[in-house]
Amino acid sequence: MPDLKKELIAMESHRSLFEEAIRGLQTPVLPVFQKGSALVPVAFDKVGETLTGKDDAAVKALFPRTTAAHGNKVLRISGANAKPMKGLRVAVLFSGGPAAGGHNVVTGLKAILGKENTLVGIKAGPKGLIEGKTMEITEADCRLIQNTGGFDFLGSDRTKIKTPEQFEAVRKTCREQRLDAVVVVGGDDSNTNAAVLAEKLGPDGVRVIGVPKTIDGDLQVASLLPISFGFDTATKIYAEMVGNILQDTPSSRKYWHFIKLMGRAASHVALEVALQTRPALCLVSEEVAERKYSLADLVDQVAQVVVARAKKGLQHGVVVIPEGLIEFIPEVNALIAELNEVLAHHEAELGGMDLAGKRGFLAGHASEACGKLFATLPEYIQEMLLLERDSHGNLQVSLIPTERLLMDMVKARVKAIDPGVKFSSLNHFFGYEGRCGVPSLFDAAFCYNLGLTAGSLVLAGKSGYMAAVTGFDRGGEALGIPLTGLINLERRHGQNEAVIEKALVKTGSPAFRFFAERRDSWAASDLFTSPGPRQLWGEVSRQVPISVALNQGYGSIVMNLGGKLAKATAAKKASKTPKKSPKKAAKKAKKSKKK
Known about the structure:
Strand content: 5-15%
Largest sheet: 8 strands, mixed
Mean pLDDT: 90
Radius of gyration: 25 Å
Helix content: 40-55%
CATH class of the domain at 28-48 and 72-230 and 437-485 and 533-572: Alpha Beta
Number of helices: 25
Number of strands: 18
Low-confidence stretches: 565-595
Structural class: alpha/beta
Distance between the termini: 23 Å
């Protein structure tokens, strides 16, 4: 027993048998980064297509230096290796919510920069860049974090760098740390901030590169960037849990489960999970907005399926709900837009009021239609709609219990349609469970190659680009996407702001069309599937997101990224930990204690 206790203690602090094994997991590497047994940076010297947005002229006026430098042109690789660079100091930071695979971006950066350059970690995200909180990242650090989940190695936060004082503080950090470049790992808002930093820091000789991160999957650029990292891992985690509940429903034969899935704006997560699990119902926010469904319409649709299944003896089912659904219901969206303006311009006045006081205040500042709708909503929804907006001016939809609202309203509607139908229900929200899991093989490989790409862009002297990897079915291709080519103007905090536009689910996309073709069959009968847990070894581990495979026109859902696993390369050296089992570690500790 004493030996067992010591073995168990040796497994603490991220040293479980599983964690030790995944650190040595080899991940596919794009062939362009491999030269013999070594990793080499590539030259981004081939100019591709030009990206332009709907507010192109306004964006060029806001980012004159950056747009003049790269002309919003995509960078591709000609096949040549980059010239060796020495003495560079490159910083990396995480921005926004965690997403599985982020640590592999760091290890990829470290590997491609090599021993002749220094990788500096910024602690606690953009705020850490402002405050000058840094650390040097070593090869030992990379061995420890390779293939692990979370952002805990460096930490993250949601600070948006936008004031003159903040920019000056960032310049000070760059001067004191002698930084040549900053790599920002984040979502659409964070990469927008990266574009701003590239513009502001350009005169100081500091380059800025973005890396696409968000489990929401709403940072996409057609065929150039099919998906952001973290999406695959999160959807596989959620699909496992939804699949487990789907398997439970015909076992207990009495519950309807209303499951809200994280994904603040777009419905990519809900759609992907539906494609993997085939639930009775899945609502897609973008379709709701396009067809102008009211809240009552949605409630009736769900209730009708509940009644129809009950008549077949199916008293159970699962409804998958995207987190941001409530913002896409036209009447509710109009209400939220009005509330955003009122909250932005009367924050001080509303600050000390209770719910009743806020109701009275809104009556005099909102339209009659929105006032009436607000009054019909349950108090727990009213309170959530009036919450303080996040740092980017967004409604905190994760705190709004949309699943509970629909469940309560469906219950009343089912009773009105057919009082004889029994309706028992439970509600769930799967969100944080999916953000920090151990990355799937897809995300592990995707992120490592994103790190290699970002590092190569830095070594090539580029700035104002987002690293991207595409062609997951044909070995993979590394790209540099001009950030300003993705930016448009959007209403935030009561004024227009430059932001990267979110990529929403397109109802004409192959993924949605396949879903629409099959959903009536899923509603009528139990045709669900349980995809099981994330796999990191074997054929199943190489599955790409189904929606990506459909939308990109792949011939299979099996990943072909890098063609084959990296062999005796720096990739393997960076991921390999010392061969020390928990038992051996315990014995070594015991001998040391005796001495």
